[in-house]
Amino acid sequence: MRSVARINTTPVKGTSLHHPDRVELTPNGIPENRRFFLVDEDGSLFSAPDLGPLVRIRADLAAVEGRVTLTFPDGATVEGAGEAVGEGLVVDFYGRPVEAAIVEGPFSEALSAYAERPLRLVRSVRQGDGSDVHHVSLMSLASVAALAAGAGHDGDLDARRFRMDLEIDGCEPYEEDMWDGRRVRLGSAVVRLHGQIPRCVLTTKDPVTGLKDFDTLREIARQRPRIPGDGGLPFGMYAEVEEPGPVAVGDEVEPLAD
Description:
This protein is mainly beta. The protein folds into two domains: about 5-30 and about 135-255, Beta Barrel (M1 Pyruvate Kinase, Domain 3), CATH 2.40.33; about 35-125, no CATH class. The protein is about 10% helix and about 35% strand. The chain has helices spanning about 105-115, 140-150, 215-225, and strands spanning about 5, 20-25, 35-40, 45, 60, 65-70, 75-80, 90-95, 95-100, 120-125, 135-140, 165-170, 185, 190-200, 235-245, 245-250, 255. The strands form four sheets. The protein has a seven-stranded mixed β-sheet with strand order 1-12-11-15-14-13-17. A five-stranded antiparallel β-sheet has the order 4-3-10-9-8. Strands 5-6-7 form a three-stranded antiparallel β-sheet, with no helix packed on it. Strand 11, helix 2 (about 140-150) and strand 12 form a beta-alpha-beta unit. The longest helix has 10 residues, at about 140-150.
């Protein structure tokens, strides 16, 4: 039986992943997932592909109080209100404009010191805008295992490097690619798949340390056909929510007949 194996979220794009047992899928994806992100001194998007060790920072968002806490690898923490009350700006998200505002407080100073370059924490105006292209992403663990086996990799390859919202068990390798354009039930929610995800350099880095440990892009290029048109290196699938609802680890995953 196909089932949800793991859920991956983070309130701040590029930081350490959380693994909740249950989430609500809405038309904007998982509420507050990637609601915050970082920009550099020019107002350009800055994330883990730019600095892998961002994944060593844990970001927590208190749902009731709306406060953000960042915990750094040395145990130091900074905390403050998550309200975006500072300067407004429009950030280029891979060709898509995202309205956001600076989150004031101790965050920018602490992040800049960690990255050794000026950074600011910002919050998107609308939920779901922190997603790269579509609001939901998923892949099968069988695909990760096949990629590792094809590379002659010794041991399991940590699937978290792909930072998918939903990891699926019980599939054949790359079976999720065959669901493109179809509706898929995940627990009580239904999504429709919207194409393959082109992968970036972050997938080559250990999801715990942020340091390169596997030549993921070379292996995808060697083992898989490129995405037609733009020629990106495919791994995992985009999706949009058509029927909102809760999804939990262990829930059945069922491709639906059109």
